[in-house]
Amino acid sequence: MHAVLFLSLPCLLAQVVSADVTVYGFFGQTTINPGAEASGTASAEASTTSFVTTPGPPHYTELAAYNNIYMLPPPIPSPPPATQFSIGVATSASLMNGLSIPQRGSFFGFSIEMSVANQLIGKNSTTLFVPFLNLMNIVAERAGAVHIRVGGNTQETAYMVDSLPNGEFLEKDHEDASNPTSTPIIAFTDDLLYMLANVSALINAKWYLGIPFNDTTNFRLQIAEHGEAILGDNLLGFQAANEPDLYAAHYHRPMSYGPYDFFGEYALLTQAYQADSNVPIKGNLIAPSVSGTWTPEQVWDTGFVEAYTQYLTALAVERYPSDNCAVIYPNPQNPPKDPLQMLPQYLTHNAGLNMATQYRNSTLLAQGWGKPFLMFETNTASCGGFPGISDTFTSTLWGVDYALQLANSNFTGALFHFGGQNVSYNPFTAVPTNESAFHEWTVGPIFYSSIFVAEAMGKTNTTQIIDMFPNNGNDQTPAYAIYENGNFARMALINFMTDPSGANDYTATIFVGGSGWNEPNGVPASVKVKYLLAPSTSEKDNITWAGQTLGGRYEVDGIWKGQESIQTIQCDQTQNMCQVKVPAPGAALVFFSDAAQQAVDPSTTQTFPTTVLTKTANTVSIDPSVLATSNGQSGKSRVNLGGTSQGGANSAVRTTGVVPGVAALSCLLTGVFAILMRFR
Ligand SMILES: *[C@@H]1O[C@H](CO)[C@@H](O)[C@H](O)[C@H]1NC(C)=O
Ligand SMILES: *[C@@H]1O[C@H](CO)[C@@H](O)[C@H](O)[C@H]1NC(C)=O
Ligand SMILES: *[C@@H]1O[C@H](CO)[C@@H](O)[C@H](O)[C@H]1NC(C)=O
Ligand SMILES: *[C@@H]1O[C@H](CO)[C@@H](O)[C@H](O)[C@H]1NC(C)=O
Ligand SMILES: *[C@@H]1O[C@H](CO)[C@@H](O)[C@H](O)[C@H]1NC(C)=O
Ligand SMILES: *[C@@H]1O[C@H](CO)[C@@H](O)[C@H](O)[C@H]1NC(C)=O
Ligand SMILES: *[C@@H]1O[C@H](CO)[C@@H](O)[C@H](O)[C@H]1NC(C)=O
Ligand SMILES: *[C@@H]1O[C@H](CO)[C@@H](O)[C@H](O)[C@H]1NC(C)=O
Ligand SMILES: *[C@@H]1O[C@H](CO)[C@@H](O)[C@H](O)[C@H]1NC(C)=O
Q1: Using a 6 Å cutoff on CB, does residue 100 contact ligand 4?
Q2: Which terminal residue of the chain has fewer beta carbons within 10 Å of its beta carbon, N or C?
Q3: CB atoms inside a 10 Å sphere around CB 162
Q4: Contact 481, 89 (CB under 8 A)
């Protein structure tokens, strides 16, 4: 439902005030009346309540992952961008200057804070959460594999124990009193690693882990010893040192701690790693994971890569474009940021571009060194993101453009971070334990970015991408050309504007090959298009990919709902052009080559049913061994669950996501801990 923007009327205001929904307008104090008919440019969504506020830090009482904050999308720029423009590309990659290095489908991966692994992945190695498997499999099936890091600030002081009470694999100990971020200290057992291995036995998930770096006189390498042994080929590498450039600020090192001190400590780590005969593989480290307080150049200048190259499987940085830390840690030097002011900064091509260009020296150097270069942890804003930005279609479009820009800039992967229940930016959020009887999981809008990017990259490992800067480089209408096996295969187009009237939908006329390139005309008779859509950039629930949705808040079991719809657009081969419309807002993925079009033929998505496994419909925990024997086919089922997958219309079988009986309190505490861990 579209709401109308009214002048603010004090009496109306008094009527509609409720504690739940906060709407930010661009015109100061604003009243949104969702009961009224849509008109004009207002398009904030407010499904149940309406509300009023003045600009400033938002107030809401529910957990951040479910907040009801809506902001009006920015107005259409004046003058507006042209709505008709052309883009010309060569058929052959060899004629295109500046294409990226070859990229993999798994480019867009995920980063799960270690302390929430038991909230998101599973209760233990024999009880995995089905929505997690289904959601990650959506990416893995499109990308060939899904890359997931389990780590973060909590990895630094984590320690391994033989067992924990009640068969748990993770225990949050006392807080690290020395740490202003109140990071919990985590004890874990190797059942964490078995759990990851068991996930990988069901879906093609590969893992990054982290080696604790808090104590350089006594490196705890158990996670590497057990990780190599248990995960084998499903292990991608070990980050060692998470954001060392913040160690001083977090009082983990003296204030004078600098890149050369870090270089010295890395010598100690690599000596311990080399000497540990229980770690068979010696080249699996990832560093330096600096987060913007030091530039990567400051680390390269120490000779870091040259000195440790034999130990390094990849280089990495971490970065968030902004932070929402003041809400958690009041600090006069970092006053609260107004999400209303921040919003337009996410709805522009410059967002990703400004970030990526800072690392282009490094991605070039990494190519010379022969190392992958990862954005190891990122999202819309640290300390949980911004309500109304991180949890709306704004972040979907931002995430698509940002990830494609990182690929264009020769990063080799980017991992989007998950916190707990009390953050806005999660790709998805497990149901709060106290609500598991009647709710399901919640998908964050950025998860749809990962699906788009997985399909944009494809599975061949040969994908090269280039930013086309169409429409005279207008920042509202970016496009990327995508080559596969040396030939033009796909184009990704984005429209950041919101205009329900349709007046700011744009039409891109795409020319492929032809005489200008000394090539034959390259346009096929028709192209296939998949759209990523929502009614407005402020939308939280109704986001669709090729016509299907995973469901609104509390509705997600990891199975698509609705009918898949892939558009076929006829091209004009005489004029060598295809015209593709991109709604405001929206993103389109256009499949040109035969192979690219075949790749989008609908196939039955493999999903993990739960009803066969338990008598209680509300329980979705799953025993992998039972699953494996009950269904055959590597434990994956092709059964439609109660008609909720493609083409089905029935309401979802309850697949609520957390094992009953876990104390609600522990879930709550997890949420608290998770948000406390991000700090810049
Ligand atoms: C569950 O806990 C959250 C966080 O405290 C709270 O906002 C929510 O209202 C609770 N739900 C129920 C049904 O009690
Ligand atoms: C590092 O972390 C371990 C495990 O939490 C803890 O026992 C140890 O005291 C810490 N060492 C330093 C130097 O902070
Ligand atoms: C995992 O948790 C389930 C449910 O609490 C329990 O039955 C099972 O024994 C646990 N498995 C392990 C390996 O601890
Ligand atoms: C799953 O985890 C259990 C440990 O609880 C282990 O015995 C089993 O081998 C694991 N299965 C796979 C496929 O890794
Ligand atoms: C990249 O390298 C150039 C040339 O060495 C230098 O001028 C520039 O400052 C570097 N960029 C960054 C972001 O450090
Ligand atoms: C990415 O790397 C390729 C190959 O080295 C290079 O041609 C291209 O200019 C790079 N792109 C950017 C944006 O740095
Ligand atoms: C792509 O790379 C991954 C990782 O190296 C590999 O497992 C996969 O088989 C490759 N895919 C193709 C089509 O070569
Ligand atoms: C969801 O959004 C689409 C446009 O993206 C619109 O066509 C559809 O009517 C919306 N559905 C609901 C239930 O609001
Ligand atoms: C969620 O975070 C906010 C601060 O951002 C805090 O005020 C609130 O108490 C937290 N809620 C829970 C249940 O942790």
Answers
A1: no
A2: N
A3: 6
A4: yes
Question: Residue 4 — very low, low, confident or very high, per pLDDT cuts 50/70/90?
Answer: very low
Average pLDDT over residues 17-25: 30
141 pLDDT more than 90: yes
Q: What are the phi and psi torsion angles at 604 (to 5°)?
A: -70, 125
- Residue 349 token pair: 């091509």
CA dist., res. 302 & res. 124, Å (int): 42
- Which pTM was predicted? 0.86
Q: What is the dihedral of CA 99, 528, 203, 108, to 10 degrees?
A: 30
Structure tokens at 305: 């890569």
Query: In angstroms, rounded to a whole number, what is the distance separating the alpha carbons of residues 66 and 21?
Result: 11
pLDDT single digits (tens) 225-283: 999 999 999 999 999 999 999 999 999 999 999 999 999 999 999 999 999 999 999 99
pLDDT of residue 432: 85
pLDDT at 458 over 90: yes
C-beta contacts of 272-278 below 8 A and 24+ residues apart: 272/219, 272/221, 273/211, 273/219, 273/221, 273/224, 273/311, 274/311, 276/221, 276/224, 276/225, 278/221, 278/225, 278/229
Give, for ligand 6, the residue of 107, 362, 363, 364 to mutate: max count of ligand atoms closer than 8 Å to Cβ: 364
The ligand with the least distance to the CA atom of 355 is: 5
* Least distant ligand from the CA of 549: 8
Place of tokens 């950039």: 537
User: How much is the pLDDT for 181?
Assistant: 54
Q: Distances from the Cα of 659 to the Cαs of 91, 120, 128, 191, 276, in angstroms?
A: 52, 11, 9, 17, 38
Residue 549 contacts residue 559 (beta carbons within 8 Å): no
What domains sit in the chain, N to C, each tagged with a CATH number?
4-71 (no CATH), 84-96+463-598 (2.60.40.1180), 105-457 (3.20.20.80)
Mutation to probe ligand 9, out of 324, 422, 666, 676 (largest number of atoms < 8 A from CB):
422
* Spatial CA neighbour of 25 closest among 7, 39, 38, 47: 7
